[in-house]
Amino acid sequence: MLLQARLLIASVMLAALPLMVGCGSGQGVREHIHIVGSSTVYPFSTVVAEQFGQKTPFPTPLIESTGSGGGIKLFCAGLGFQHPDVVNSSRRIKASEVAACERHAVDDIVEVNIGYDGIVMGLSRANPPPALTRAHIFLALAKQVPDGDGLIDNPHRFWSDIDPALPNWEIQVFGPPPTSGTRDAFVELAMEDGCKHSAGWIAALAHTDERRFRVLCHAMREDGHFVEAGENDNLIVKKLNANPQALGIFGFSSLDQNLDQVQAAPVDGVTPTFANIANRSYPVSRPLYFYVKKRHVRLVPGLREFLAEFTGEDASGEFGYLSYRGLIPLADGHRRDVAQRAADLTPLRLPES
Q1: Which of 39, 97, 167, 265 has the fewest CB atoms within 10 Å distance of its CB?
Q2: Taking residues 328-342, what's their average pLDDT?
Q3: Which residues contact 141 (CB under 8 A, 6 or more apart)?
Q4: Phi, psi at 320, each rounded to 5°
Q5: What CA–CA distance (Å, rounded) separates 325 from 43?
Q6: Using N-to-C axis directions, what is the helix angle for 303-311 and 332-343, rounded to 10°?
Q7: What is the bridge-based pairing of β-strands 86-89 and 285-293?
């Protein structure tokens, strides 16, 4: 029995060795959970953290809004208390990012899908919203647009240049930077579809030269008509109020929290509402996630309990407190499945590409 006990202690110490080595810079044991990542998931994560701090004996987690891409880079940099335990993401982690994690011994990542969000084209309430299509959006924001069988630098200065039915407003759109998961999702959900519909030969590229297709359809114009406004959605809301003819790209939750100041343009005839995102009829909607280091669960106090709080019915259920903050909940059966996988710390396995 003594030998078995010694072997058990040795195995636990070996499992924790990468984390203990990572703490060798004098930081010691960290008692709070450290979370980085998406500005879209940030407000949901913050509410859960506050509830967690009030309901449990554990400290309230520290959360930083770094953007999805920047947060995943920090998350994947290594194991140990100087590295974050959790990363919020407004898109699914990429295979290349999983590979980067594995190169730094960050394996057995646990994926948690918390619900859905829509990406809106918002504007001040001072003017009626334009009725946009994804083709309109692409032709307004793309770096280059089709001209016959070729491409030209985007010549459109006004929305009415694209479609006379649109207002004669100068195209000025505030949006997130490339490190943002909202930007990634927007170019895939709005720009790509609009790109396909802009010319038949571009639609064919999606099947014959996917890399060229993505480069063409994802490149945003750089002539001042699209303005990177940072990760802070509230800053975009302020800019829209200062310029009633400008539009901004941000998540539905920010729209929901600022309905007294901004409204959303319909896209392809569908207005972004709670119901339309939940039933997936609104075309520019996406799932939201966070990712956890399984190895950190054993060493960071409260991390397992934080997972349970976030995935529980009280938080992310149909009538959970996050739904009142703008999160579109998963169907109840799906949520229970996600919660069970989180409780079991089931490692992420991406489908083969």
Answers
A1: 167
A2: 94
A3: 154, 171, 173, 191, 220, 221, 225, 226
A4: -70, 165
A5: 8
A6: 170
A7: antiparallel
pLDDT tens profile 275-315: 999 888 999 998 999 999 999 998 899 999 999 999 999 99
Q: How far is CA 352 from CA 89, 204, 255, 287, in A?
A: 21, 24, 36, 20
pLDDT in tens, 132-175: 999 999 999 999 999 988 999 999 999 999 999 999 999 999 99
Nearest by Cα to 120 from 212, 228, 224, 252: 252
Name the one residue in this structure whose structure tokens are 């929305």.
Answer: 159
| Neighbour tally for 124: CB within 10 Å | 20
Q: Strand 62-63 and strand 34-37: pairing? A: parallel
Give φ, ψ of 112 to 5 degrees: -130, 115
pLDDT at 296: 96
Cα dihedral 164, 167, 169, 172 sign: negative
Query: What are the structure tokens assigned to 193, written together?
Result: 């579809």
299 with 34: CB under 8 angstroms? no
Averaged confidence pLDDT in the chain: 89
- DSSP E strand stretches across the chain: 34-37, 62-63, 86-89, 109-124, 144-147, 150-153, 173-175, 226-228, 247-251, 262-264, 285-293
Q: What are phi and psi of 173, to 5 degrees?
A: -125, 125
In this prediction, residue 14 has a pLDDT band, given cuts at 50, 70 and 90, of: very low
Please check whether residue 314 is in contact with residue 329, taking contact to mean a CB–CB distance below 8 angstroms: no
What is the model's pLDDT at position 352? 64
